[in-house]
Design goal:
The structure is a homodimer of 361-residue chains. Chain A contains 10 helices and 17 strands.
């Protein structure tokens, strides 16, 4: 007894809540705007499909001019390769025999490139590629200030590039960073590219990424490619970063006020299992924007409840009233839902299964 | 091309990561211990299936002595009613025609009870039940200090009980609280039960809930029933609350060190899409326990990365090494995975689809 999906033509206000809608016109505008920016600045654009996990949306992004896609896990790459995407970058250290076997199988469907930041990762990739008689392009991940993965110095990058270059089955594909940081990324990349050039190694691709930094990507002249995912839907985080406006937020979660126990507190009918518990990066601790009540603050979550502070609202919603929430982070919301409803002019036009949801390996 | 599930008999250390395992012996012990506590104190036990969302585990809980189950959403209740659970409580304000229609359909499969904290909710339930010629039991949710849903005073509870009692299609089922708070809950319940008795209204059930408070439930003498979900798997939160030991944590996430970019930082191969972004309630901001490296601290997440601080560790893991993580909150982890692997003595014994995952309405 799976939950029914609504028929095309259903009005948004008639949908049972909570439910995730994506405005198709807004999304199309987001796709056009990003591609135009990359075209203007001579950047190859490689959208990150982890945001939507829906092959039909990737097809729209490619149709608009994107060259290849980015997947964060093999499970995503397998879905999108089967759907016809033939140029896939996985910016991740893939380790262990089962994953490397899957990667080699994917090379028969698509041009595969991956990232590495250690000799261990490179060695595993080379062993698998050589054994399978395949070739994989490997980009070196550089930590240019974000403090997550990546080599820490240009010298380490050079050393790893030399290892990749001499490893059977591998091709040195260039450099990648996440996120692009206009303040610190250029110096790291310039120094690294200088060392590589002296060693006779060419970085075919220098790939940066991240939606919040999108419109400053051209300030990093070394980049040849941009990766972004969130831009396709946008969310409260990209609004808070100044990267998107409310009108550019295509993803909305339709919700209902389930309870209004005090004058200043309302409870919406979904929590961390509907909206995710991802926090707002720039203005903690709010958990999403309530469109109809912009002075309302979602200040806490439990699994199926969102607690809303109404103390700054002049008018307040009543029990049973519907509201529209723009979540903090659209990528983790997609990942919680089996279906996303594409809407246009207030009505459901299409129902998309979130095809790569739940493929965590 | 869905991700393959491992064959029974596979060793845990041969599983591709990240993957969620549940130790069947540990889980069975957790089920026995909880039931024994409730039996000892004369409490009816009604496990909350939102934690596991797997009908086979509900069957084990019922077999051990539980009387009925708790579901948080209609989507869960539909799955469990179809699987044969015939006594289901949904502690939630159900609103709107589509949901009320589904609730009435469920009354043909199971004895249904729900919660309400407003006249709006009661009116909707009554209209739907009367129109369908069905009867539903309604418990009044009382906010005894948690600050989420629930009536705020015993007088409000009495008023709502009178409304339920005179509403066609409804039966006044009693009171419920979440979570049980041994300090503040008894006074609220005593006052409310006093008012109800004077008005000639009997609270058949007085239901409390929450795993962290479990072993103090008997300190609230008014309760006739206990609800808990997390106890079946346990997690870092229940350990931090002192409710469970490490040995009682049945759910473990098998992970791999994907990167080790600095001496003191390692990155595991899953983040908020694998472990959820739920925070630790008592000792922010850590995001899970690394069993093999108890001095390691998961201090940040992104979607597919967990950042681990190793500065307090005397020995440190290497890239490619496998580690076992006990997540902060097992309920939101279940909700991210299509399958859970039941393991015993280090080997996979069963593969359970998380049947009610993703049913957000």
């Amino acid at each position: 007894m799976a939950e029914p999906t609504p028929a095309p033509g259903t009005l948004i206000e008639d949908l049972e809540t909570p439910v995730v809608t994506v405005d198709l016109d807004v999304m199309a505008g987001n796709i056009r705007k990003m591609q135009a920016y990359c075209d203007e600045h001579g950047l190859k654009f490689r959208p990150h499909v982890k945001t939507h996990k829906i092959p039909k949306i990737a097809a729209m992004q490619l149709e608009a001019g994107a060259r290849g896609i980015t997947c964060q896990k093999l499970g995503e790459a397998e879905i999108f390769a089967e759907a016809g995407c033939d140029d896939i970058f996985i910016p991740y250290n893939l380790l262990g025999a089962p994953k490397l076997k899957r990667l080699m199988a994917l090379t028969h469907l698509a041009r595969m490139s991956v990232a590495a930041d250690s000799a261990t990762t490179v060695q595993g990739l080379s062993d698998a590629a050589a054994a399978a008689g395949r070739e994989v392009s490997v980009l070196i991940e550089c930590d240019t200030g974000a403090g997550r993965t990546g080599v820490q110095t240009p010298e380490q990058a050079l050393e790893l590039a030399r290892l990749i270059d001499r490893s059977p089955g591998l091709r040195f594909g260039g450099l990648m960073v996440f996120p692009t940081q206009p303040e610190s990324t250029p110096a790291f990349l310039e120094a690294t590219l200088g060392l590589l050039a002296k060693a006779g190694l060419e970085a075919e691709t220098v790939s940066g990424g991240g939606t919040p930094q999108t419109w400053r990507t051209h300030e990093v002249p070394q980049l040849t490619e941009h990766r972004a995912g969130t831009y396709v839907y946008n969310d409260t985080n990209t609004m808070a970063a100044g990267t998107a406006t409310l009108a550019e937020c295509a993803m909305r979660v339709q919700m209902t006020v389930a309870s209004h126990p005090t004058e200043d507190r309302a409870i919406l009918d979904g929590g961390s299992k509907t909206l995710s518990a991802d926090r707002l990066l720039w203005r903690d601790p709010f958990y999403g924007t309530v469109v109809e009540y912009p002075d309302a603050a979602i200040y806490a979550y439990s699994e199926e409840h969102a607690n809303v502070d109404l103390s700054r609202c002049t008018s307040k919603p009543v029990v049973g009233e519907r509201v529209t929430v723009i979540p903090n982070h659209c990528c983790t919301v997609s990942n919680l839902h089996n279906h996303i409803l594409g809407v246009r002019e207030g009505r459901v036009e299409t129902v998309w299964p979130v095809a790569a949801r739940g493929l965590v390996r």
